Structures are given as C-alpha cells and as structure tokens.
Amino acid sequence: MTNLVWLVPLFPLVGFLINGIGWRKIPKTAGGVIGSLAILASFAVSLGIFFEVKNSGASTTVHLFNFIESGKLLIPFAFQVDALSSLFLLIITGIGFLIHVYSTSYMHEDEGMVKYFAYLNLFVFSMLLLVLGSNYLIMFIGWEGVGLCSYLLIGFWFKNRDYTNAAKKAFVMNRIGDLGFLVGMLLILFNYGTLSYNEFFGQLNGGQVQLSGNMYNWIAICLFIGAMGKSAQIPLYTWLPDAMAGPTPVSALIHAATMVTAGIYMIARSHALYNLAPAALNLVAIIGLATAILAASIAIRQYDIKKVLAYSTVSQLGFMFLALGVGAYTTAVFHVMTHAFFKALLFLGSGSVIHAMGGEQDIRKMGGLNKHMKITGATFLIGCLAIAGIPGFAGFFSKDEILASVYAHSPVMYYLALGAALMTAFYMFRLYFLTFTGSFRGTEEQHHHLHESPAAITMPLVVLAIMSVIGGYVGLPAVISEHHTLNTYLGSVVSNFNVHHLEHNTEWMLMGLSTGLVIVMIIVARVATKTPNFVENTGIAKVLENKWYVDELYDAIIIRPLAALSDALDRFVEKMGIDGIVNGIGRLVRWSSDRVRLLQTGQVGFYIFVMVIGMAVLFALRFFGLNY
Amino acid sequence: MPVQYYLFLSLALFCIGMMGAMMRRNAIIVFMCIELMLNAVNLLMVAFSKMYNDSAAQIFVFFIMVVAAAEVAVGLAIIVMMYRKVHSVDINILNRLKH
Fold this sequence. Notes:
The structure holds 2 protein chains of 2 kinds.
Chain A: H1 7-21, H2 28-56, E1 60-70, E2 73-81, H3 83-106, H4 113-132, H5 136-154, H6 161-192, H7 197-206, H8 213-230, H9 239-242, H10 248-257, H11 261-269, H12 271-275, H13 278-300, H14 305-325, H15 329-356, H16 374-388, H17 394-409, H18 411-436, H19 444-449, H20 455-470, H21 485-490, H22 504-528, H23 539-545, H24 550-596, H25 604-623
Antiparallel strand pairs in A: 1-2
Chain B: H1 3-23, H2 27-52, H3 56-86
Helix pairs in contact in B: 1-2, 2-3
C-alpha cells in the first residue's frame, strides 16, 4: 500500500485536470461527482496507508524520480510516508471529501461550479504534495500551490472588487512569508547540502556539521516566518479574516483541512531543528500566545458570523504555535486534528445558516434559528462545545493538553493562554446564542425563507459533529489514562521535547479550573445575549470591533509610505531622471543638428567643389609625405 | 612615343573634366565631365601599362569601364527622372533639402 502513495495526490490532480479543462462543457452535477469521487479515492488509499503505518510503525521514503540533479545537489521527487504525514493525509482527504460533498449542494446555483471543483481538487492536491514531500522543496511546491489555490478560491466571485482585493491580500501576505521559507531553505541547502528530511535531520542529530548556535536559530526563524504567513500568525494574520470573501466551504477547507495547518505541519516536521534552536522556539511560543489573545479579543466584538469563526481560527492557530513553542509538538498536531473537525463543522454550519438566510451574514439580523434548522443548530452547538473545551468533547482534550504543557513551561504564559481560551468560550457561545436562540431579528421575507438545508449539507455536518465528539479520545490526559494513543502513534516520527509532566493533582486542578471558568463564561455569554440590543460600540469595544485597527496601522506604516515612495520614485526618478536623460539626449541631437544642418547648402556645384578641394588636400598631404 | 605625351594629355583631360564638373550647371554636362575624368585616368593607366609592360593596369581599366557603364545607366536615369519632375536639368534647382 505504501508504494501506492503516489495515487493519493494523483486522484485530485486528475479530477482537477478533467474539471479544469472541460469546465465549460461538463454538467454541474457531473463536475461535483468527479471532484468528490477523486477525493474519496484519495481518502480510501490514505486509510490503507494509515493502517499500514499504524501497524508497522515504519517511515518509508517512496522515490519517484530525480527532480533536480546538478553537480553535488540531488533533489529527488519523493514522498515521505510516516506516522505524521499519514495522519495529515487522513485529515486532508477525509475532511476535504466532506467539504466536497457539501459543496455539491452549496454551490449548485453557481454557474462556475465545475471550475470551483477544479480549484478545490487542485487545492487538495497541493496540500497533499505539501505533507507528502520528503524534502523541503517538494513541500515548497505544495506550499506555493495552496497559496495559489487560496487566491483563486477567495477571489472566486471575481466580479466583486472587494473579494478580489481580499484574494490579492491573501496572496501578497503569503508571499511575504514564503520568502522567509525560501531563505530558510537556502540556508539549509548552503550549510548541509541537502533538503531531504532524512539526511538533514540525520546530520542534525549526528552533529556532523557543527554550526554556530545562532545559525540554527536563524534557519528556524526563517522557516517560522514562512509558517507565520501560511498559518496566519502576527504580524501576517490579517489575510485570513478577509479570506471570508470566498464561498463558505472554501473557508472551511482553508481553515480546517488545508492551508493554515501547513505551518504547524512544517514546524512539527522540522522539530529536530527547533530542538536545537531554543530562541526560535521561544519566539514561536510568544507569537503564538500573542496571536491567540489578540484574535480572540477581536472575535468578541465581530458581527459577521464568518468573521467570528475566522478570528477564532487565528486564535486556535495561535494555541497550536504556543504548543509547538513549548516543545509539545504532538500536542499541536493533536489540536490540528481536533480543530480540523470542529472548525470544519462550524464553518459548514455557518454556510448552512447563510444559505437559509439567503446570503445574510450579520448575526444581528439572525436569532431563533434553532426552531427552523434543528440539525444545523444541534451540530453547531456541538462544535461550540468542542471549541470551548467542555469535557468530553474533542477540543477539551487537545486544548487541555496544550494548557498543561504551557503550565509546565511557564505559569505566566498559562494564565494568558487560559484567558484566550476563556474568550474563545465567550465569543463562540455569544455567536451561538445570537444566531440560534432568542427571536428572529431579520426581515419577514427571510423568516419565510428559513428552512433546513438538504441532506448533502446536513450529512457532512452530522459526520463532523460525531468526529468532534469522539475525535479527542485518541489523546486522553495522563491523569485518566497512561496510554496516549496519538503520542504512541506519532512517536516514531516526532515526540515532545522538554515537556515536563505535571503532578496528577496539579493536572486535575488545572482541568477543573479551566472547565469551571469556561462554564462561567458560557453563562456570561448567555446573560449578555439574553436581550440583544446593538448599540454603537464605544471605548475598548469599538477598538475590538475595528480589529485593534491593525489593518489601518498596516495601511499607515507600510502601504502609505510605500505608495508615497512609489509616487516619489515615479515623479523624481522616472519622470525627471530617466525621462529627463532620454528626452535630453533627443533635444541635444535636435539642437546640434539644427546648427550642423546649415553646412548643407543644397548647391550641387558647391558639393563638387568641396569634394575636389578635399581630394586635393589629401593628395597634397600624401605628396609631402604625411601619413593620414 | 614617349610616355610624357600621354601624361600631359591625360592631365589636360582630367583638368577639363574637373573644371567642367565644378563650373557647369547643366547636369548632363557635369555628368559628361565626370566621365571625362574617369577616362583621363584610364588613359593614364594604359600608358603606364605599356611603359612597364605589365598588363595588370589594363585589367583595372576594364573594371573602371564596366563600373562607369553601370554608373551611366543609373546617372542618366536619375537625370531623366529629375527632368520629368522639375522640367529642368539645372543642378542649382536641386537644393530643396536645404529647406
């Protein structure tokens, strides 16, 4: 089975080619079926690979062909099949498949549906390439591929200028991060002469090449900058909330299964490097923590259902980076997995709501939807419980594990992270209560239109809801069970570094503390939304509603100076400098030829005369023995 | 016959040709004068060829005659065109480039 791993990315690629080439001709339903089947086939192969890896615990490199061969440099096109990549394969293809099924119904009214499926398949293909590559270059190809696909899908409704701007923003921000990744990659290549994981990590662990301590940090930080862009961390996070411009299933795909988890995967994959780079690891933790708090605080005051979820993703990604930063790599992967379930669930649920509301996304105009959409409401509630960290749901286990690891690292960071987790509980339940309970606040027309979505939409919701409940039981906390299934599974590839185990009593206490406070926050959210009145926000709330004015800040300190600089360059260098030189030469030629022109009298006799005189002079020179 | 006679004749022809080309305004006369200069040179070459018993110069003369013939064809054509255009062969009229 492992040798067939190339089939996994092949199916989506074929799906992309069929739908992409024939998108004008293929009927909508057929396009949806082709796209979904391609991912389903990948999922089936992935399952086989997963269980094979689970049983054998082996890491295999499947060599396909040599990609770059130049002098001593050899970069093969090879796939790495091990516990880490096979787990990601399952997440990507599994959730990707559900999102495809969902899209067949959600996008059915759209004329570009087949093209949309082509993009989705390409997206999944790129992501699979990213996680399967056995060296950084293959990862980088996938890395750029998901960047491209996010651009295509965010700007899918390209007739709206705001949407295309959001797409461009995502692309440019990603490019900034990609540059960091590229520099990091070149540093590795320069110092170690290889980009293969096995060789690179082997050399790191074996210590054949000793670098100065700072070099490890620089490489790790460069790679982390790449992760910042792709996984939306401070300062490159602002593209992700804007990415809501795309169709809702795309948001689910970007936020849950693909794209944003790439950064986590990359750092978890490079853990051998980060273990040697304590400063970089600290930076990861601090950035992650700051992002978690900042994004959570913004989410509290957002009114767009998708914006709330977007900031919650940014915040949850912050948690994952925090976990990576304290060395709890497998915990971060665990949270990637559980987060993929409930965030896909929440996004698809919000899509179902938006569908029923006829395109309305403002939660101030919703309310009481539970009466009309029972399945969506119930599954959304499960998603909220999971993300808030109520015991028994998937999010609880992974988040608790992160918090415990952070506590062992530094109690101060723990309290800050706990604050972010509590904000998560608050804004998620604020969202839930405002949307699904109370009375309807929209127009009469919308009220009539309210209905439960068709089965193609609700089925994925139910599956994801089930996964959001049971997904966490692969990683039970140490106080409950000594056997941590996920850690054991991942153990052959990546294990936690420098994470101290807590006393059981401490762990119980932390768990109790966070659970108790989360329940309090839910009650607070209930009270706060009991009688919704939406007055103009003032003070800190207004700052939060406007996202801490970060976009405005970037506009002021980066975009405007840049625009002013371009303007100055245009005016002084281009117009005055370069154009001045070019036009000046032209003018000089005109002016001088105006003078020289007078020599030409136009009298043929005069010309002949000058010719004769000239010849005579030449002969005379020759005659007097002068050489000319 | 000593070679000096040829030299003086050739010099005289060349000078006539040169003065004619410089002084006259009729394009055809100027043209003929140029031909005269060419042939003066030809004469000189043949004379020296005889003097040194070397036929190389005569080969040059043939070349000059061939080129001169071609030049006549082109030159006369230009003059014909010029006459059609301005109804004159006076070279002093052809000064429009000045303006």
